[in-house]
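Form 7-S
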Amino acid sequence: MLWSILKWVPPVLALIVGAGVFTRKTFHVETFIPATPQQIWAVLAETEAYPDWNPVFVEVEGQYAQGRKVRYKLRDPSGKILEMTAAVKTLTPNRELRQKGGILGFLTFDHQWLLEPVEGGTRVTQHEVDRGIYLWFWDSKWIEPAYLSVNKALEMRLKGAS
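Output:
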């Protein structure tokens, strides 16, 4: 009896993990900031100053470096502080910062900061793809507005530095 039940555990787990891997949600926000990519990058790279200006990523432990891990404390709209760790996958100064983290099948994220010089400033993009079964249950409507608020706070930080 027990064997007839247990033999279904691996296929059911594989189905759940597989469904989680193929479930995805994309978040994308763009903001024009009248500053150079170098000026913006300087603020993004100064992780110890995030508590001074960033309304979402309120604490960062570690520095951005290719292959390194960075630990974040982030504030959700309810004020709850969440902790996560990301591995820096791509680091192109003044252009791109790409980080990944999470638990495969449950919830993973692939987040990018992209800085593109345009006339009069920089197009600042945050692009993220989340995957996992947790997306079936998680209300993620707050992510894009939160990222937009970070972009706006970044712009204000740069104005204050002028």
